[in-house]
Amino acid sequence: MNTQMRPISNNMVWAILSTLFCCLPLGIVSIIHAAKVDGLVAAGNYAAAQEAADKAKSWAIWAAGAFVVLLILYVAFILVIGISATGMGLH
Fold this sequence. Notes:
Layout: H1 12-21, H2 24-42, H3 46-87
């Protein structure tokens, strides 16, 4: 019987990158979940470790998505302000 498990990635890199470049609050939650993974693996709790790794990845993806949404809203806001300023004769 093969008792070797495939290694569980803690997704810490993605958690840190999403915190630095995307959305700070969601990235911090991702870091918290990523930090739990290695301890859970060391304790032999592979199911909980995989769950924490999956949550870390999900939160990092949500942080990146929030960044994209906020970027789109920002660009739309700038465009609307620019169009309304030019429509009022303000240059």
